[in-house]
Amino acid sequence: MRGLTIDLEDWFQVYNFSRIIKQEDWGKQRERVIRNTDRLLDVLDEYDTKATFFVLGWIAEKYPFLVNEIATRGHEIGCHGYSHKPVFLMSKEEFEHDLERSVKAIKKACGARPKGYRAPSFSITKKTLWALDVLKENGFEYDSSMMPTDKHPDYGIKGIPRKPFMIKGIKEIPLTTVHGLPVGGGYFRAYPYILTRYLMKKDKNSIFYIHPWEFDPKIPRYNLPLLKRFRHYVGLKKTRKKFRKLLRDFRFDKLDNIIKKDFS
Ligand SMILES: [Zn+2]
């Protein structure tokens, strides 16, 4: 079964913006996440599909009703950290603090402790495997942060299994790459749908990811460096249509259901 994952954050919280919009100014930005998530939830209902939402602690703190709504509609709530800082830019102590703060906010919002974690920008790499020890100490059951690619300048980990595997007492569900190409997010927006479908068909257990802001052509425009600008803004108008095709062509499930099968 294929896994559907959504990283719940707003448009200004992505790594591309970390130098332009500081965390202390997040509250002053134009909020788009509520409406974008509502619309996404409706599409998921329409195709009777359940997903795992990796929620940013900052979002859970500010919009607890949104996180509660997602859980009430039958989706899994996972954890995406609090500050969206990549793990490779944090010390172990900083990471512990960031994780605890986000778990607290998420638990308060939906009443349950998350058991799955996704690092911002897929930042669990060979240098940050210590983060798995921290996840284990904090009661996490699984992690879905490893991207088996060497094609991206900021993240990626080579030579790991392409299927779920155990590492340091944690169940790892790596993201999917086919021929080194990831299948979600900006790649999904940039590829013609037919290429995504081809790549998805190659892997019956593919793990797909997307963000609510990727469905929103009205997110504010910033003058990013060319490549980053392309990655952030390409294909926003077509995401909704492509995503419907994806849900029509493939069956997905949330990750807590998937690990039950893969590790039983
Ligand atoms: Zn993220």
Which properties best describe this structure?
single chain; 264 residues; alpha/beta; TIM Barrel; five-stranded parallel sheet; four-stranded mixed sheet; 10 helices; 11 strands; 38% helix; globular; binds zinc ion
Describe this structure in words.
It is a single chain. The protein has one domain (2-262): Glycoside hydrolase/deacetylase (TIM Barrel). It has ten helices and eleven strands. The protein has helices spanning 33-46, 57-62, 64-72, 92-110, 130-137, 185-190, 193-202, 226-233, 239-249, 255-262; strands at residues 2-8, 52-55, 76-79, 116-117, 142-143, 165-167, 170-172, 177-178, 181-182, 207-210, 252-253. Strands 1, 2, 3, 10 and 11 form a five-stranded parallel β-sheet that branches. The two termini are 14 Å apart. 42% of the residues are buried. The model has no long low-confidence stretch (mean pLDDT 94). Bound molecules: zinc ion (ZN). The site of zinc ion has 5 residues, from loops.
Q: Could you give a short description of this structure?
A:
The protein is an alpha/beta fold and 264 residues long. 38% of the residues lie in helices and 13% in strands.
Q: What's the alpha carbon Rg, rounded to whole Å?
A: 17 Å
End-to-end separation: 14 Å
Order of helices and strands: EHEHHEHEHEEEEEHHEHHEH
Roughly what percent helix? 25-40%
Count every helix, treating DSSP H or I runs of 4 or more residues as helices.
10
DSSP E strands, number: 11
Shape: globular
- The structural class is alpha/beta
Low-confidence parts: none
- State the CATH architecture: Alpha-Beta Barrel
